[in-house]
Amino acid sequence: RAGSSPAGLAHGAPAARWPRADDDGGEGFRPCLPRLAFVEGARCQTFVGLVIAANSILLGVETDYPGMCWDSVEQAFLVVFVTELVLRMGYNGCKYFVRRGHVFWNWFDLIIVGLGVSESWIIPQLASGMNSSSTLAIRSLRLLRLLRLLRMFRLLSYLQKFMDAMVDMIPTLMWIFGILFLFCYVTAIVLTHMLGKMEALSGLDVSQEDQDELLAEFGDLCTTMFTLFRIVTMDNWHTTALRVTKYLPTWRIFFVAFIVFGSWTMISLLTAVVSDHMLAATADLNEVERRRAHETRLAFLAYLQKSFHEADSDGNGNLDRAEFVEWTKDESILRKLHQVGIEMQSGELISLFDMFDIDGTGQLSIDEFVHGFARTQDSLGMNHFLALEHMIKRMDRQVDIVRQSVDDVVTAVDARGGPTVSTWSVGSSPSAKLSHKVAQLEEIVQTLADQQRSLVGEQANVSEAMRGCQGKLDAIASALQTGGSDGGGGRRLGAGGA
After folding, report:
1. 157-191 vs 266-311: helix axis angle to the nearest 10?
2. What is the mean pLDDT of the chain?
3. Cβ 206 vs Cβ 247: under 8 Å
4. What does the pLDDT read at residue 7?
5. Rounded to an integer, what is the distance from CA 480 to the centroid of its chain?
6. Which helix (H) or strand (E) holds 377?
7. I want to staple 388 with a disulfide (CB 3.0 to 4.6 A). Which of 109, 335, 346, 465 is the partner?
8. Kind and range of the H or E element at 136?
9. How high is the pLDDT of residue 457?
10. Segments forming the whole domain that contains residue 464
11. Does the keyword Membrane apply (predicted)?
12. Neighbouring C-beta atoms of residue 177, cutoff 10 Å
């Protein structure tokens, strides 16, 4: 029997490198006003995200259709953002500015909302004495409201995963860009001398139009580097290449080699780096989810241990049926079980007592109690079916052994000349010889009774596993009936699984 430590019942995963926006960083954070905790809840953050999206759409509409009542709508959006900021500052208190895992986003929100308040409420009161250039600069601050879209990276996990990958790949991208820049820089120096200063074309009859085009493309170092950048992106590169190879045919090799290395090789390398880091970011996100599930499971098992001791009214270290029934009547217990995915009512929980009582003593030890609910919380998997199949096969083998033993006893009695089983009666008067045989038979029957009791224990295990599987299969069938597009097919699948 496994130990009752929660660490032995759950499988964890290492923490991810990048903290999530809603991670307290393990600092033991205590809110200043706990009643405002809803402001950092999922519903409130979803509402704020929708408001940010609506505000961004408004900026786009206002760009094409100015002069309408957009200012009033913008004021309403600003009121929402200011209210949300004040509530969050009230919830965090002074730790709003230093809370680990939240510092960047908290200061970011404060600056963006502050700019919005200044541009919409404060500066218009002071704009009477400003010139037109100052007024234009102030109104340009409105474009900074688009930075609120960056909060979507905080609210949406997939956008946050993308941002994490972008930040993580910056060092590798810098090395690749550095190699590409050095390659273009050295090549630009050579081409400026050979083509821009006409050193490679000296003695050739180059038209004045081509000379002007070559000078416009390779006249100085910066211009040559920009031309090479266009060739790397393959933007109209053939025009430049044909102009040069018309007079220098061997330069075809240069343009082919430059494109193969600068465009195909380096761009492919950039794509590989981005893909690798995106996959790594996805793995990190999965590790974070597994870690959260692990922590939730540990907390639930610790809660079960505490609840077990509270329900043990007589303090004997076990729960009898009456104590278990009383425990299931607690509404807080039912809510906690619902939070971890155990959707059962009080009457259904009572039926779990016999399933958890494996040894059949009529009492639950703390191991049986905790491990029973831990198994109930697990999803139905192939290992459950394999364990059930193994127990059924083992029970069948034991039944065959008992049947063979009974057949052997009957055969032995008949072979020794005793009465057959069909002729035995309670009221008969057996002889001394028959009494001896009956005594031997009673010993064999006692052995069979012991085997039968062992078989009953195995049947209890099978019944427990079958009830667990039946409940989970019923839940699967119900989900298929309600969620599937073909209701009839879902009912047939659920019935077949049962």
Report:
1. 160
2. 76
3. yes
4. 38
5. 23
6. helix 366-377
7. 465
8. helix 132-139
9. 66
10. 382-419+432-497
11. yes
12. 12
> Based on the domain organization, do 222 and 326 belong to the same domain?
no
- Last residue within a domain, chosen from 100, 125, 155: 155
**CA 428 to CA 430: how far, in whole Å?**
6
Query: Nearest CA to 251 among 277, 218, 223?
Result: 218
70, 146: one domain: yes
Place of tokens 């019942």: 9
* Residue 436 or 394, more confident: 394
Spatial separation of the C-alpha atoms in residues 177 and 266, rounded to whole Å: 9
Burial class from Cβ neighbours inside 10 Å (0-12, 13-18, 19+) for residue 280 reads: middle
Contacts of 159 (CB under 8 A, 6+ apart): 152, 153
CA 453, chain centre distance (Å): 47
Asked if residue 27 is part of any domain, the answer here is no
Residue 206 sits in the same domain as residue 257: yes
What confidence score (pLDDT) does residue 177 get? Answer: 92
The continuous run of DSSP H or E covering 350 comes out as: helix 346-350
Whether the pLDDT of residue 254 is over 90: the answer is: yes
- Which among 387, 359, 388 is positioned nearest to 454, based on CA atoms? 359
Same domain, yes or no, for 256 and 180?
Answer: yes
The answer as to whether 16 is a domain residue is: no
Measured distance CA(377)–CA(239) in Å, rounded: 68
Contact 229, 177 (CB under 8 A): no
> Please, are residues 90 and 115 in contact by the beta-carbon 8 Å criterion?
no
Q: How many domains does the chain have?
A: 4
Same domain, 114 and 150: yes
Which residue type occupies 243? Answer: R
Distance CA 14, CA 283 (A): 11
CA dist list (Å): 299 to 39, 296, 305, 337: 24, 5, 10, 12
DSSP for residue 122? I
Dump the DSSP string for 351-373: THHHHH-TT-SSEEEHHHHHHHH
**For the whole model, what pTM was predicted?**
0.47
Residue range 441-466, pLDDT digits in tens: 667 666 666 666 666 666 666 667 67
DSSP class of residue 6?
G
Q: Could you tell me which of 294, 267, 300, 299 has the C-alpha nearest to residue 179? A: 267
Say if residue 176 is in the same domain as residue 268: yes
Phi, psi of 24 (to 5 degrees): -80, -5
Contact in structure between 380 and 469 (CB atoms under 8 Å) = yes
